[in-house]
Write a structure and sequence with these properties.
GPI-anchor, six-stranded mixed sheet, lipoprotein, Immunoglobulin-like, elongated, disordered N terminus, single chain, 456 residues, 14% helix, alpha+beta, transmembrane helix, COBRA_pln, signal
Length: 456
């Protein structure tokens, strides 16, 4: 009897373990891992704040504001797209500073037709030049949002919405669900709306404070994996002390394959290049990227240029290989231990990023306005460059073992692929230096003997 009980207990234990394993596997298959943590910007996110500012006979008027709290990741043209699902049967009567992309079926309404009757509206920003009577503060930028560190005055975007068929008190209003943010493509995952303490507003004369009737927040975080299945940029390296130029790894952002993917890239000497640049023949097979071994739209080249007694100098070049994409308000984030001793930067702006207290090894670089802040499409003008002067810290500085090269580089918030460390252009090893020294000595001796013989 005892053995039977033991056997049953063992079977139950096995079943329990099997059940736990099954639940784990199901959870893995049901929920996709979309890691959005960025070690160089651990608190970066886009926060959407929904403030109800007044009640109406069948709903409310709200101001919706997007704050880009990301240090170096911005939203560029054609701008953001915000969507959600109504909790009840709400409609949008009118909007200012934004508009929905689809009105939906409003046939059941007699007289005044709502702006949008969809259960899942999609909102976009209005364009610059919108008439003033359709604007609100922080609107009408075409959906472009600059990053917080680069341009905090243009890191917010707002629109006003009048909602009907909704509750008329903070106890009957239901928050929308399933928020989505495209900027302009995928990449962001948004949290459920959370009711928070009502926002307080200070009047322009700063003598009176008012507050929203009800406020909820939505937090959206970025995942590079969701934004693009393949990398979008790569890094190449070179130095004055080594003739080797380390190119981006082959097929970093894709491979040239004319058999399975014809027209995936275009050659600089191709007869089709003129039509691509002029915008003719835009179809799925039209090449966008210049044919290279790495096939990346952006390449960042780091060249260790000069060595002085107390300083050393680096040249940074950003090249655009994309024939269809201009990068406005671009930025570069570089992690290197010597940024703690940055002396001078030429033709780029600089801001120190300190994601962790006491560690100053990360810098954000971007172009000077109206000079090189515009990175043009692929071609003769498709690059920007600058030089950086570092002061040597005698306790850490060395050219040995690739120390002079960056640890990590981001372009427009996306992590660029670095070459493998064993391929870095290192200093000549000791044996090479010894052989060179011996050869040099032998040549000197032979030259001296030749002089003596000629005199004899």
């Amino acid at each position: 009897m005892e053995s039977v009980c033991l056997s049953s207990t063992g079977s139950i234990a096995k079943l329990s373990s099997f059940a736990i394993l099954l639940v784990f596997l199901l959870s893995c298959s049901t929920f996709t891992c979309t890691e959005a943590y960025d070690p160089l910007d651990p608190t970066g996110n886009i926060t959407i704040k929904w403030d109800i500012i007044s009640w109406t006979p069948d709903g409310y008027v709200a101001v919706v504001t997007m704050y880009n709290f990301q240090q170096y990741r911005h939203i560029q043209a054609p701008g953001w797209t915000l969507g959600w699902t109504w909790a009840k049967k709400e409609v949008i009567w009118s909007m200012m500073g934004g508009q929905t992309t689809d009105q939906g079926d409003c046939s059941k309404f007699k007289g005044v037709t709502p702006h949008c009757c969809r259960k899942d509206p999609t909102v976009v920003d209005l364009l610059p030049g919108t008439p003033y009577n359709q604007q609100v503060a922080n609107c009408c930028k075409g959906g472009v949002l600059n990053s917080w560190a680069q341009d905090p005055t243009n890191a917010a975007s707002s629109f006003q919405v009048s909602v009907g068929s909704a509750g008329t008190t903070n106890k009957t209003v239901r928050v929308p669900k399933n928020f989505t943010l495209k900027a302009p493509g995928p990449g962001y995952t948004c949290s459920p709306a959370k009711i928070v303490r009502p926002t307080k507003f200070i009047t322009s004369d700063k003598r009176r404070v008012t507050q929203a009737l009800m406020t909820w927040n939505v937090t959206c975080t970025y995942s590079q994996f969701l934004a693009s299945k393949t990398p979008t940029c790569c890094v190449s390296l070179s130095s004055f002390y080594n003739d080797t130029i380390v190119n981006c790894p082959t097929c970093t952002c894709g491979c040239q394959n004319n058999k399975t993917d014809p027209g995936s890239c275009v050659d600089r000497d191709s007869p089709y290049l003129a039509s691509v640049v002029s915008g003719q023949g835009k179809n799925l097979n039209t090449p966008l990227v210049q044919c290279t071994s790495h096939m990346c739209p952006i390449r960042v080249h780091w060249h260790v240029k000069l060595n002085y007694k107390e300083y050393w100098r680096v040249k940074v070049t950003i090249t655009n290989f994309n024939y269809r994409m201009n990068y406005t308000q671009w930025n570069l984030v570089v992690q290197h231990p010597n940024f703690d001793n940055l002396t001078e930067l030429f033709s780029f702006y600089y801001k120190s990023l300190t994601p962790y207290a006491g560690l100053n090894d990360t810098a954000m670089l971007w172009g000077v306005k109206f000079y090189n802040d515009f990175l043009s499409t692929a071609g003769p003008l498709g690059n920007v460059q600058s030089e950086i002067l570092f002061r040597k810290d005698k306790s850490t500085f060395t050219f040995d073992k690739g120390w002079a090269f960056p640890r990590r580089i981001y372009f427009n918030g996306d992590n660029c692929v670095m070459p493998p460390p064993d391929s870095y252009p290192w200093l000549p090893n000791a044996s090479s230096q010894l052989i060179f020294s011996i050869l040099y000595t032998v040549l000197v001796i032979l030259a001296s003997l030749a002089v003596l013989l000629s005199q004899a």
